[in-house]
Design a protein that fits this description.
The complex is a heterodimer.
Chain A lengths: L1 H19 L3 E3 L5 E5 L2 E5 L18 H14 L4 E5 L3 E4 L5 H8 L21 H14 L5 E2 L3 H9 L8 H7 L28 E7 L17 E4 L16 E2 L7 E2 L3 E3 L2
Parallel strand pairs in A: 7-10
Antiparallel strand pairs in A: 1-2, 2-5, 3-4, 5-11, 6-11, 7-8, 8-9
Chain B lengths: L1 H8 L7 E2 L9 E3 L10 E5 L2 E5 L7 E5 L6 E9 L4 E8 L5 E7 L8 E4 L12 H4 L6 E8 L4 E6 L2 E7 L13 E6 L24 E10 L2
Antiparallel strand pairs in B: 1-14, 2-5, 3-4, 4-14, 5-13, 6-10, 6-14, 7-8, 7-13, 8-9, 10-11, 11-12
The chains are: A alpha+beta, B mainly beta.
Chain lengths: 264, 219
Amino acid sequence: MKFKTLISFLLLFIFTKAAAQSPTYTNTFGMQFVLIKPGSMVACKFQPTVGHVDFEGKPLPEKIVKEATAMAKKDAMPGFKVSITKQFYIGVFEVTQEQWQQVMGSNPSVFKSDSSAKQPVENITWNDAQVFIKKLNATDKDHVYRLPTEFEWEYAARAGAQDDIAWKEIFTLAVLGGNTPSIGGTKKPNAWGLYDMLGNVWEWVEDLYNEKIFADPSPLQNGKEHVLKGAAFTSDVKNATYMTHAGGPGNGFDIGLRIVMEVK
Amino acid sequence: MCFNACMLKAQIPQGFSPIFNGKNLDGWHISRTTHQGTTLGCEVKNKAICITQKPFGQGGVLLSDKKYKNFELYLEAKVDSMSNGGIFIRSSESGIAYQIEIDENAGSTGSLYGERMPVSLSAVAKERAKVWKANDWNAFRIRMTGDTPHITLWINDVQMWDVQEPKNDFIAGAVSGMIGLQSHWTALYSPASGEWNGLTSWAPGAVHRFRNIAIKELE
């Protein structure tokens, strides 16, 4: 009886704690976060498309289409299931120039002006991002901040989507084109309330880059560069999808970050 | 006789320094952020860089490690028909660049375009047909100078156009950049993204070959 009561209390404690996590949180620097709950996705599935017509809509020679279809089939990859087992908070927006300035005391951005405070910070290396996070953790001792892993980032960006994203939807979510990044949140948020996961600035994630089209099931232990996700205002609708697996160093002026706050 | 004459022509001009050693891709790297693709096929065969898609439908950009500001670039190209590529000049790491288009299918080889940036003044190589050798090696010489770019193109020693841009079109005002060789993408990651008729941009198995790549840096 005593044992059963103890178990009941423990379960109640676990459920209460889980339920107690607020769906959103804003820290002392004004950084807004959304709680991302555990779940799974199929990542790194490659189903290359084959066009059948030319730019004028005329059918392409059958021989070429047949050859392309065979090559596409040969290079296709089934992907693999990725489980996110632990809930976490992720930034609603990319870290802004104002927030970087508050934490670091300086602003490295190329597109810096009197009105750029709410634009994402850019022109940062992966190591710069780590220094920022270290300082943020030293300042706000109540929380633990870090970069998302590539799969955490992609899971949050997909917001429940199992397949890749349609072009017409990308245009509603992503800042693409123009000569500078935009202030955060000018486009529609994704289904979980996150802005600018696609477009605006590339975002550093924790993982090392494997020089392949997609990530491996387990992250590399050694490597020269780190992974970039989400594309930027300099990108194209073709790679502004949550599947794109890019690597540093990139242009600099279109590279920023979004951070994770761990759930205690 | 003709063979000897052709061989003599296929040499780096005097005053130029090779930036491709004819053996491997030392001094070059693949862009990891271009939308064209990040796993470009690029191998050295018969002293030429052979650019292909890899895997199917994913192109990319091969970049020189070094950036150049004022220069003349010389190279020889042999390109398959039904394939869209280009020579990038002052390219950024993600392949934002002024581009000398190579597209035999569209008939736009030698045109001055922008890659991921609008170009104030574009240009067409109207006289190209007079000197072009289809399915064979053709020599490109590109001169680029000035903070506000002044660009001139010669194909097989004949000037195609001379363009003084009215402004520098680069994002963030770049006045130097890498040399890039591009293969265009044709496939999306998934049909869920939509329909794309991109096969016209790169036929299955198409190759762009580049050799005798050399540069003369200018003041």
